[in-house]
Design a protein that fits this description.
The complex is a heterodimer of chains A (about 270) and B (about 700).
Chain A lengths: L2 E4 L3 H8 L4 E4 L5 H4 L5 E4 L9 E3 L3 E5 L4 H6 L5 H8 L4 H6 L2 H6 L6 H8 L3 E5 L4 E5 H4 E3 L2 E2 L6 E8 L6 E6 L10 E10 L2 E10 L9 H4 L7 H18 L9 H18 L3
Helix pairs in contact in A: 4-7, 10-11
Chain B lengths: L12 H6 L14 E7 L5 E7 L8 E4 L23 E2 L5 E7 L2 H10 L1 E6 L12 E9 L2 H6 L3 E9 L11 E7 L2 E6 L4 H12 L6 E5 L12 H16 L3 E4 L2 H7 L6 E10 L2 E14 L5 H11 L8 E10 L13 H18 L4 H6 L21 H12 L1 H7 L7 E14 L5 H6 L2 E6 L5 E4 L9 H13 L6 E2 L19 H19 L6 E6 L21 E14 L5 E11 L6 H20 L5 E2 L2 E2 L18 E5 L18 H17 L10 H11 L3
Parallel strand pairs in B: 1-12, 10-11, 14-15, 18-19, 22-25
Antiparallel strand pairs in B: 1-5, 2-4, 2-6, 3-5, 7-15, 8-13, 9-10, 9-12, 13-14, 16-21, 17-18, 17-20, 21-22, 23-24
Helix pairs in contact in B: 4-5, 7-8, 8-16, 13-14, 15-16
The chains are: A alpha+beta (about 270), B alpha+beta (about 700).
Chain lengths: ~270, ~700
Amino acid sequence: MVKGIIAKSLRDALELRKDSTFVPYIGGTDLMVEADENKSYLFLHQVPEMKNIAEDEEFIRFGAACTFTEIIKNPLSPMILKQACRQIGAPAVRNMGSIGGNIGNGSAKADSALICMVTDSKLRLASADSERIVPIKDFYLGRKKLNLNPDELIIEILMPKHGLENYYHEKVGARKALAISRVSFAGIMDIKNGVIQNNATAFGAVSDVIIRLDTIDNMLIGKTIEEAKKLRGDYIQAIGDAIVPTRGRVGIEYRKDVCINLLKSFLEVSGI
Amino acid sequence: MKAISKSVPKRDHAAKISGSAVYVGDHPTDDLLFGRMLRSTKARARVLGVKLPVLPEGYFFIDKNDVPGDNEVHIILDDNPVFVEEIAEHIGDVIGVLAGTDEREVNILLKQIEVDYEELEPVFDPRKSDVAFFDFGYEKGDAEKAFAEADKIYEEDFETGLQEHMYLETNGIIAEFKDGKMYVRGSLQCPYFVHRAVMKATGLSSENVSVTQDVIGGAFGGKEDFPSILGCQVAVAAYKTKKPVRVVFDRHEDIEGTSKRHPSFCNYKAAVKDGQVTALEIDVLYDAGAYATMSMVVLQRGIIGCGGVYNVPNLKVRGQARKTNTVPNGAFRGFGGPQVFFAIEMLMTHIAKDLQMDSVDFKLKHVAKHNDLTSTSGRFHFPVPIPAMVKDITEASGYYSKKEAYKNQSGRFRRGIGLAAVYHGAGFTGNGERDLIKAVVQLRKDRDDNVEILTAITEMGQGVNTAFIKIVAQELGLPPERVILVPPDTARVPDSGPTVASRSVMTVGELLRRAAIRLKAEWRDGEEQLIEEHYKHPEYMIPFEMPAFRGDAYPTYSWAVNAVEVEIDTYTGFIDILGAWGSFDAGTPIDENIVIGQMEGGFLQSIGYAMMEKMTADKGYIRNNNFSDYIIPTAVDVPNMQVKLHVEDFPLGPYGAKGAGELPHVGGAPAVAEAIQNALGVNLHKIPFLAEDVMDVLRRKGGI
């Protein structure tokens, strides 16, 4: 029989999480499909501390249980995140599905996680006894492998506030709605006084985890547009070499081509 | 528009919307056994033995040894066994049923069954198969001479893929054997098909078998032949266990284990003289799957239609349905037509391009006219409205100006527009209605002067009940609520034939109209009356000779012209449907909304068939067995769809109605394919054509 407990506070939730047989469950839009009768669930959708969207000097802080609809409607949410969330599933899925669940599910196709990766967001993880903050890039260890202890929960997502204005995002699905990403791409280019302050890219649905090649992206940081143009070929080549799509339902060649095409398009609209 | 066409709420609407409709999975499950299939995990293997776990009381295993009648499912060749006799012919072939009181326990026990196989060499490619279940051919004129005299000869190969029905409600049957009688009910299109199949498998006489239709959640042909197979399996289980047995598939099992549209491989040769196609030599090959089931009829319709809407004086046609070790393919809306209409429509565009003509103008030069000979040397006895419909659709879609504008494009997004003209033969092929079906309908009036419609026709969402009620109410001058229509039960209704072939309204509806006219003439207030009406074959029809394929293949034709405009993203290969325009002639609509709804739904299904729906079998195992992996279009994918009805009355259909249901699933695919090829500047020979195929083309061309 399915067993479930509804946590009403964060303390409650973390205490219950000590029993690691409980699977954290927020909207259930992925878990319901599995419909595993032998599992027990810890329902987190009513934990008030996980439902906030707030800002401080540096970050916009999203409670992990915030639904995509709540994120889309909140004026604090950056446009790049809103755009990605709008393309998830269908209204019913967006009303139930959460950003924390999307990240915690560990899929490289996760549409909101892609944005967390490209923005170098941080995750606040907590257990009953401790708390830590982990850059999302260090959270994904491999295919469905997370840097998350059995007694921990993702509590909050800290998304940097600044420098997200010049963004690029495309999701390629098999249809226009109710689509799982076949390839997804996000890029951020922050240029001040003709000098690139930040260049970040992320590629989803290509490998075991979302690809974030920050050391290669850094090639362009500190460069002027003209300098970047000269590096363009080497940069694309380096990214292309580093992207090795895993085998999947969608062809390897296809996904690689699309990644490079979208990267080129991102550079083009950024004037590079 | 005639008065009868004015739309009314569908009779089945309220129950379905409110949730009160009872589907096969909704019946109470107390005291019944849940059945699960033991399926072959090998594509071809001799079953040497089945080792069962210890079955608790109330649990049963049913297999070939329990079949009281013949271990054959009556469809056409009756080659699909009820349960594997000796050799399992495809992954999913049913070896037996495990039935028991607790569904979960049945699942656990099922996993403990061990099957001992001797593996045999399977065949997955019909081109490499030695077994042709059917091999037909026919000729018209003198193709050989025309080819000898041709200015130019074109030869091309075309391929189409599997298509899954994706009805929302999966297949399901309940059977109960009580007091010497077998009661079967479930989600099925053709109660009498199941009736006859169950008789043969159980050895019971006709009066001891009763088959009832439950509310159906969509079918599209997927519940035409398949329920005969499932019906026999569940009936045999009920016979052995002496308890009601229910088998309702989950989505995975439904996709893996039930029929689909036949993949096709066609070779077309065209002789062109003075800019005119003078002859076609066509070789059609359909992948039948492991058993013949419905393939004979699907193939017949395919080879009759393989010349399209064109008057080509010389034809030489061969068609085969060959065996492969895959799930048997069966009936699907369009029934053998979509494959060949794709091929002929693409071929015509390719020849036009080579002759530097616009494809639509080239097609119009060849369209058959009223009284012309058909492919099988029958006649188009009624007007062919294609030219007028082409005019409507080229205007509505802006076809010519768009085609011109899209000739020289640059940049990331490229557009294209395509147009297809097609027909669907209305009703059964050849003399089927006269010789095989012999449809009967009844109207029964009770003492309160309410009138019940008694036919074997099933409502599956297509709106036939509403149409029948409108026809009878109109002729009797009764308010529709005085006309009763409940799902058929073979114990109560005469055999008016199966709910297939776009025949229900045209053929059975006309019988009801005539019955209603008679009832009105003989009406006696307050008395019980029964009126029975029998099929009469149209006298004008040229008898259809088999196996020569000569004569009138259909009493009449429904026509469609479809245009589709696409925009292709050359960075991602994504194909965006910018617009879809359709003109459909299904004769007089008995209900305008219902027919428009049918046209829109079928058109969308046809578009999906061309550019979205891809089912791949990996050595006979279907991997994309759910809604997230088998992608069908949603309304969001084709938001701009404009459908209009062109009405050519059919004098023998009720108020001029002819076949509607399948018509929209023929022309959408070639229209999409032509739009894609125009956008990419290449010739297309294969559907489905997806984003990955777009990128393959671009890679080969080194970008465009």
